[in-house]
């Protein structure tokens, strides 16, 4: 706003100055011309030749001053474009720098992590987040909307960098890992983008069918007109929500990630589709380190650990039954609210 006001003042001043010069030129020509004609020192034609020459010159000056703001805007725009092109990202997904592990167990630990979104620096998402996710266990993250549940997954995959604190995978700070390798160890499934998973290299038909069976997707795929070769349209437009979910789960199974990240995996599904998808997820999560973000609390009752995120920290942590027994507990309140709204 300040820059806009400044540009407006400068533009108005330039336009006013240009118009002032033009009108002064006209007045000067008419006055001097009339004096010269009166004393016989110039003819009427000669006066108007000079008048038009000076007037056109003044118009040119006025128009050129009006173009100055446009030139300034163009200069600023070019500068911002080159700033973007020359910017060195904090998280460079194309970099090959970093270490790897020969074998991944899947132990994840958050130690005193603080974070704010770059676009909302005044909002503290996490201020001292401490969370342990044991290898091979399922940890569910619950909490109010905007509490930062999905941000936990983004931090694990290094889409964001914490302001302070550290995140460890198998005892190694994740910023030390090669980024492409780190993300290859994880399978991220979001309902919004319905991200497709694939294995590096080639998979056999038998492996694909086995993954589809594990995801409860084989039966409906086989019933399609051309089976596995059926065209489903752009972005799977011919598939239902539950079918898209199961295909995405099958791709995650085929990838066989050591760490599985599930962000609202059953949202926007009807009860029957949710049951089928949940059964598929239960199979996938066996012996994998799994982080689940869910608003539907019924889908995470069987989790090994349920962590309740509130005000940027872990407010409660434990199994479903233990958390329900906490008097006036945050988790118990969320369950009661969920049951009331249902």
UniProtKB/TrEMBL annotation:
<protein>
    <recommendedName>
        <fullName>ABC transporter domain-containing protein</fullName>
    </recommendedName>
</protein>
<dbReference type="GO" id="GO:0005743">
    <property type="term" value="C:mitochondrial inner membrane"/>
</dbReference>
<dbReference type="InterPro" id="IPR003439">
    <property type="entry name" value="ABC_transporter-like_ATP-bd"/>
</dbReference>
<keyword id="KW-0325">Glycoprotein</keyword>
<dbReference type="GO" id="GO:0015421">
    <property type="term" value="F:ABC-type oligopeptide transporter activity"/>
</dbReference>
<dbReference type="InterPro" id="IPR011527">
    <property type="entry name" value="ABC1_TM_dom"/>
</dbReference>
<dbReference type="InterPro" id="IPR039421">
    <property type="entry name" value="Type_1_exporter"/>
</dbReference>
<dbReference type="InterPro" id="IPR036640">
    <property type="entry name" value="ABC1_TM_sf"/>
</dbReference>
<dbReference type="GO" id="GO:0005524">
    <property type="term" value="F:ATP binding"/>
</dbReference>
<feature type="transmembrane region" description="Helical">
    <location>
        <begin position="20"/>
        <end position="41"/>
    </location>
</feature>
<dbReference type="InterPro" id="IPR017871">
    <property type="entry name" value="ABC_transporter-like_CS"/>
</dbReference>
<keyword id="KW-0677">Repeat</keyword>
<dbReference type="InterPro" id="IPR027417">
    <property type="entry name" value="P-loop_NTPase"/>
</dbReference>
<dbReference type="GO" id="GO:0090374">
    <property type="term" value="P:oligopeptide export from mitochondrion"/>
</dbReference>
<keyword id="KW-0813">Transport</keyword>
<keyword id="KW-1133">Transmembrane helix</keyword>
<keyword id="KW-0067">ATP-binding</keyword>
<keyword id="KW-0547">Nucleotide-binding</keyword>
<comment type="similarity">
    <text>Belongs to the ABC transporter superfamily. ABCB family. Multidrug resistance exporter (TC 3.A.1.201) subfamily.</text>
</comment>
<feature type="domain" description="ABC transmembrane type-1">
    <location>
        <begin position="1"/>
        <end position="73"/>
    </location>
</feature>
<keyword id="KW-0812">Transmembrane</keyword>
<dbReference type="InterPro" id="IPR003593">
    <property type="entry name" value="AAA+_ATPase"/>
</dbReference>
<dbReference type="Pfam" id="PF00005">
    <property type="entry name" value="ABC_tran"/>
</dbReference>
<dbReference type="GO" id="GO:0005886">
    <property type="term" value="C:plasma membrane"/>
</dbReference>
<dbReference type="GO" id="GO:0016887">
    <property type="term" value="F:ATP hydrolysis activity"/>
</dbReference>
<keyword id="KW-0472">Membrane</keyword>
<feature type="domain" description="ABC transporter">
    <location>
        <begin position="108"/>
        <end position="336"/>
    </location>
</feature>
């Amino acid at each position: 706003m300040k820059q806009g006001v400044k540009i407006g003042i400068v533009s108005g001043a330039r336009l006013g100055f240009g118009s002032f010069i033009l009108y002064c030129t006209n007045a000067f020509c008419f006055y001097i011309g009339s004096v010269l004609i009166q004393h016989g020192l110039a003819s009427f034609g000669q006066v108007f030749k000079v008048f038009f020459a000076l007037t056109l010159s003044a118009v040119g000056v006025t128009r050129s001053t009006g173009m100055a703001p446009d030139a300034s805007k163009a200069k600023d725009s070019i500068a911002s474009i080159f700033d973007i092109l020359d910017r060195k990202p904090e998280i460079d997904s194309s970099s090959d720098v970093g270490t790897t592990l020969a074998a991944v167990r899947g132990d994840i630990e958050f130690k005193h992590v603080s974070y704010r979104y770059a676009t909302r620096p005044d909002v503290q998402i996490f201020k001292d987040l401490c969370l342990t996710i044991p290898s091979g266990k399922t940890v569910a993250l619950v909490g109010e909307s905007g509490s930062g549940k999905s941000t936990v997954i983004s931090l694990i995959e290094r889409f964001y960098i914490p302001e302070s604190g550290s995140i460890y995978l198998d005892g190694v700070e994740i910023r030390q890992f090669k980024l492409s390798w780190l993300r290859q160890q994880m399978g991220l499934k979001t309902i919004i983008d319905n991200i497709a998973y694939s294995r590096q290299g080639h998979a056999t038909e038998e492996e694909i069918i086995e993954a589809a069976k594990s995801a409860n997707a084989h039966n409906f795929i086989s019933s399609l007109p051309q089976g596995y070769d059926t065209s489903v349209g752009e972005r799977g437009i011919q598939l239902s929500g539950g079918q898209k979910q199961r295909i995405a789960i099958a791709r995650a199974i085929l990838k066989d990630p050591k760490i599985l990240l599930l962000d609202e995996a059953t949202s926007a599904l009807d009860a029957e589709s949710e049951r089928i998808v949940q059964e598929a997820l239960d199979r996938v999560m066996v012996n994998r380190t799994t982080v689940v973000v869910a608003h539907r609390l019924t889908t995470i009752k069987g989790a090994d650990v349920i962590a309740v995120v509130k005000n940027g920290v872990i407010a409660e942590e434990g199994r479903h039954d233990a958390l329900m027994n906490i008097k006036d507990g945050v988790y118990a309140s969320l369950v009661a609210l969920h049951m009331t709204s249902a």
